[in-house]
Amino acid sequence: MSQKKPQMQVEQKVPENIVKKTARDTKLREAVAKRRTERLAANKTRRAQWDKNAQAYENEYKAADKSLIDNIRKAKSEGGFYVPAESKLILVVRIRGINTLNPQVRQTLRLLKLRQLHNAAFVRVNKATIEMIRKVEPYVTYGYPSRAVIKNLIYKRGYAKINGQRIPITNNNVIEQQLGKVGIHSIEDLIHEIVTVGPNFKEANRFLWAFKLRGPRGGFIAKRKSFINQGDWGNREDLINDLVKRMI
Amino acid sequence: MTSVPLVSVFSADDSSKVTAKHIPLPAVFQTPIRPDIVSFVHTNIAKNRRQAHAVNPQAGMQHSAESWGTGRAVARIPRVSGSGTHRSGQAAFGNQCRKGRMSLPIKVWRRWHRRVNIKQKRHAAATAVAATGIVPLVLARGHRISQVPQIPLVVEDKIESYEKTTDALNFLKRFGAFEDVQKVVSTKVVRAGISKQRGKKYRVRKGPLVVYFNENAKLLKAFRNVPGVEVVNVTRLNLLQLAPGGQLGRFVIWTQSAFAHLDKLFGTYRYTSIIKDGYQLLRPLITNPDLARIINSNQVQEKVQPAKTTKVLHEVQKKNPLKNSKAMDRLNPYAKKQRAAAVAAIKANTKGTKKIKKNKALKKASRAAYNKVAASLNDATKAAVQEEQDIKVKYFSVQKGAAQTE
After folding, report:
1. Are residues B273 and B266 in contact, defined by beta-carbon separation less than 8 angstroms?
2. CA neighbor of A148 nearest in space, from A160, A156, A159
């Protein structure tokens, strides 16, 4: 007379681990989603600001061009000459290799960020930098870059120095992270700072890695001679733009 | 720890019958498995059975060899003195020479034995015993234990009174240990190398280890002739038998009294050992093996930092913004408007200009005039060409004629 044993009531319990983990995971997912919406909204306002800035700079450049032309015309009409201000910015390009260099020249080239053949770098013009460039004159060619060349250099060959690494400038976060605190948020801001040699030129130029250019299509004339002597090294003023266009 | 692992003691005659249920496992079997200690102790202890040997101290040196010095167009190695035989003048003594003595000849006073700290030896033994109770380790060591009813296998003391080998064999067969013995038999091979001429002809595997307790047990003789089986008293457990080759997990068959003696031998986590004076079993580094539970516990999760996201600052490949409009728009949203403005400007520039209407009549007339000129020109050129050809023919025919005459 065996009595039927009562069925053991087993409630389907979910293990504690899994309960805790799912709770945690949903919380994390919600946080991520929230961050995303915030980020997207922030990006929208940022992009609007970049747009606005770029537009403002374009107007500024147009105005600067126009004022130059107006001044020249005015001076001509008065029978005089208009001498525009000397350029505040120099683009230096290294045209000599690394062998058999005088140690002082070697060091100065390093200070100018020109560690390699065909490296180019922007340099602010002041007494100190003029002296430096004079020291390395036979090994470099330099001149006053135009706005278009500056723009092309930064867009096509622009790399940033972040934590000692050479990072391509593929988006404005790269710029924002390093230069946001000095008010440079986008690539157009950066270009403007370089072109006008603004108050934060030091940071902006420091941020830029040296431009690694290719050898000029069509070649140099004669690197052993100075530009003045129908060669290549030294100051070639505005003609640096023609050279760099062939090297970009 | 409120729950203790339990073990059954099996009847010697019937492997399905259990004489004592639920005996608690001795604390030794809870020792953390430390293969590092075992391997260290084993490599040293294994050296203690060695017998001193040496090379004959005079080997290779029983010559009055002397170097001939320089100036005789031979190497400066000592050479055998005398004459009248091939051997004279040959090189001697050096390790590089034929018939020379070896470099650093072995001496009997080489340090053959190693001492190991007692505590290390004891920890190693404890770990080795613990490993005999872990099925995966025993399997990994290569024992055939798939038919064995329980690991650790504990059997009543009756087997200690076995005198006949048949009894021993039948016992092993009953408990599924015979497969291990068969493995030993079938894998007995002649040893490679010269040791076979020095008394170690066969390489034999290790089979089960039978551990007993009572000193006047007769089972030693019964199990002695079974290949692979070793018998040892529990008070004299040997690491070289518990972990042969330094490998943990020997298949061990315990008698009930031997099993019970282990607590006295090694002590427990509550009491130090009586026999190994003052010895305390190794404690594990962590007592809770449930890592998932630990990681997911509130205490750990409170302190845990949020997971790092691998956020890359820049795109993997740099595209040229001057050519790639998508890359450009990413950097400069105003560029899109500039492009649109440029296109609009071109359109605007060409807006006012009229399309030049084609005057068909004019076209026809000019075509006719051109053809006339072309034709007249053609006549002139035709005449010129013909003239040239006539001259050529004349010239060549003259030549031909000249050749023929010569």
Report:
1. yes
2. A156
Q: What is the pTM of this model?
A: 0.60
pLDDT tens, residue by residue, A56-72? 999 999 999 999 999 99
Give me the percent of chain B exceeding a pLDDT of 90.
74
How many alpha carbons fall within 13 Å on the CB side of residue B77?
14
Instruction: For residue B144, count other CB atoms closer than 10 A to its CB.
Output: 20
SS3 at position A51:
helix
Instruction: Determine how β-strand B189-190 pairs with β-strand B153-155.
Output: unpaired
Model confidence over B9-22: pLDDT tens digits?
999 998 888 888 88
Interchain proximity A173–B318, CB inside 8 Å: no
Which of A155, A156, A173 has the CB atom closest to B313's CB atom? A173
Predicted local distance difference test score (pLDDT) of residue B400: 55
Q: In 3D, which of B6, B286, B239, B43 has the Cα closest to residue B132?
A: B239
In percent, the amount of chain B with pLDDT more than 70 equals 96
Nearest to A54 among B301, B313, B334 (CB): B334
pLDDT of B406 strictly over 60: no
In chain B, which residue's Cα lies nearest the Cα of A151?
Answer: B322
B305 at A interface, C-beta within 8 A: no
Residues in chain A: 248
Place of tokens 């599924």: B176
DSSP class of residue A196? Answer: H
Q: pLDDT tens, A134-161?
A: 999 999 999 999 999 999 999 999 999 9
Chain A CB within 8 Å of residue B331 CB: yes
Mean pLDDT value across residues A9-36: 85
A-B contacts (CB, under 8 Å): 68
- Please give the Cα distance from A58 to A67 (Å, whole number): 14
What are the structure tokens assigned to A142, written together?
A: 């330099």
Task: With CB atoms and an 8 Å threshold, state whether B319 touches A170.
Answer: yes
Element of type H or E holding A77:
helix A16-77
CA B397 vs. chain centroid, Å, equals 94
Please indicate whether, in this complex, the C-beta atoms of B322 and A156 are within 8 angstroms of each other: yes
What is the 8-class DSSP label of residue A183? T
Q: How far is B16 from chain A (nearest CA, A)?
A: 27
Using a CB-CB cut-off of 8 Å, the residues of chain B touching A48 are: 333
The residue in chain A having the minimum alpha-carbon distance to the alpha carbon of residue B319 is A170
**Distance separating alpha carbons of residues B275 and B281, to the nearest angstrom:** 13
